[in-house]
Amino acid sequence: MSSEKTTAAGTVGILGKLLAFLAVSAVVGALAAGLLTPAVAVTGAAVNGSQSMFNSLPADLTVTPPGQVTKILAADGSQIASLFTENRTDVQLSQIAPVMRNAIVSVEDYRFYEHGGLDPIGILRALATNASGGHQGASTLTQQYVTNVLNENLVAQGQGDSVVLNGDKTTGDKLREMKLALGLEKQMSKDQILQGYLNIVPFSGNAYGIQAASQYFFSENASQLTLPQAALLAGLVNGPSYYDPVAHADRAVSRRNLVLGTMLQHGYIKQKEYDDAVKAPLTLALKAPHQGCAYASQAEYFCNFVENQILNDPAYGATTDDRRNLLERGGLTIKTTLDPRLQGPAQAQVDSTTGANPDKWGSSLVTVQPGTGKVVAMAQNSRFLPGHGSGFESDYNFNVDASDANGNPLGGVGGMQPGSTMKPVTLTAWLGEGKSPEQIVDASRRVYPLGYPWKSTCGPVIGAYDSAQVGEGADKDLQNDEDGYYQPMSVRRGIYLSINTATFASAAGLNDFCDIQRAADALGMHDGAGKGAKLSMNTLGSLLGSYNVSPLTMANAFATFASNGTYCTPVSIAEVDDRQGKKIGGQAQDCKANAISPEAAKEATNVLQDVLAKGSGQLIPQKLSVPAAAKTGTNQFNNQTWVVGYTKGLATASFFGDPFNGSDAHPGQHVWVNGVFYEAIDGAYIAGPQWVQYMQKAQAFYDHGDFAPPTPPQQNNQPRQTQLSTQNQPPVTTNPVQPTKPAKGRG
Q1: Residue 92 vs residues 112, 209, 401: alpha-carbon distances, Å
Q2: All domains of the chain, ordered by start, with CATH?
Q3: What mean pLDDT do residues 49-67 have?
Q4: How far lies 264's CA from each of 121, 261, 277, 652, 746, in Å?
Q5: How does residue 630 score in pLDDT terms, banded at 50, 70 and 90?
């Protein structure tokens, strides 16, 4: 073989001679015009102009890495989904079967290892063929690689519409590619060029590069290709659509056999190998690539959540388009926190909760690991695409904030009314002030009129309950879900029985009503709109869960109780690596110890354990076999119902209802769900069993030991009050304001 360095200079000289030859002989289709296609006769001046143009063209090619497949992985390394605009996975030349390398060289450029980027013999042969009325090309593999690189560069810059097809190229286009081919041969070895070519060239609209083509047509890696398979793929690059073996099997086989003939002719195979290969039947094992989270192998909505975390993060690009380009072309490896051991049971559970589901009820589960913030499972009973599951299709993620979409139609539904699962926020404020859960409050009180003297240092408290003031803007007297509980009781009993009037009496007994807001903030509570939207706790209705909050927010708040007061921001992305395997991002754990006092967290857990042992959670038919704490919740129309609960190692929000509409348009009353009739759905009835059955399968993989017990009152440095007198509430000046009508908090 000749050295490319010595042949390159000679090729330049030959090119000039060929241009002169064309002018003298007046052969139409000058070399500068493409070497192949007849046109008008050129003059010596034109040739001189072409030579001048050639000399002025750039010789260095900027090789932008072609678009690669991005992989989203679960915590155990299993693949969740792939994202791409071009299905391509680069491989080293050593990972490509020798028969494939030989096949492509033999049919596309058998003098590849002998020329310096342009093939003078090939050019003369093409000129003679075309002058006699035939058609033959003269582009070397190096020139073809240059063409593909230039096209990929345009696509990477968002200028795919500017790609010029071979038949439309100008003289300048052809000369530029020739000059770049000559320059490239000085920068790269032959094997590097061949590797780059085989990784960039399209074999099909479904497969770019040899690895993707091998996977698509034969379900094999490029290293495992047989001789007939390699010959077939080598034949495709000349016309991927025309020779498509799926649509045009006869053409594909004919082209394959032509390639085998060139391999025999140029000594790459022996006669027997040729004879056996041309007799081989066309055997495909198609493995169609699926792009996007809708085709995820598991956790499609978690996948989309992760995708949007990247699109919303400026660390991955200045604009959304930049970030999307990186995501879909960058060949990233995104390692997530998802635990398939939990995801499988979670998905199976939400699917079985609603069954055939003709009324389009939604069910979902989302789990966070306390003390880390890792989102380890996220499931819902709908699917992105028809025919993929329950028959309930939705573009929206039930578990996350509305802002978890960035110009993407697939995003969070924006939360639902959590009902009484919000009551532990008031409990947290109460315990944070050093008050005892055994303290008695006046749960008989139902009237909190306009101008009520709430003790608030951070602004007026909005809302009022007084049937006598309805005409002035107040709501009717405060109601419990059931009669018989309008009586003094302990704060503990008020929580585990989910008594609205007890929660309000606790709020009235706080030293500062604003401690409820502080507790909500410390627990990471925020409005379901997301993007930092504050959940305003100075509105009375918010004490009973009247404002939308996402299940992920609820699960993560309860995880703070499980971790003895340590709040962690939810994280879903452990690490992001670029195509070379270099770490370029990820979400670091962001935890704050003592976000709420450890003592308050332990006390809250102790109270919430009673919910399952002797409170509203007793209505859940099954019991968890390990220590657990939880709170039920139901909105006033019984169509958004919850259980949010936790073990020591897992916190899960379980939702059942209409995720889109918490109004009376789709009430959860007098309805059939999965073959069972419900007079009125309660959090314990459907969301409860869903939570227990899932957690029973999930809890074994994480810490499920005993919770840390609260410090006995006599050993706690903070004094405990024993009883709150309803006659001893010091007046505080607050501005009377118009109330907003809250949802009725229920168990």
Answers
A1: 19, 12, 42
A2: 4-56+87-279 (1.10.3810.10)
A3: 66
A4: 21, 5, 11, 65, 81
A5: very high
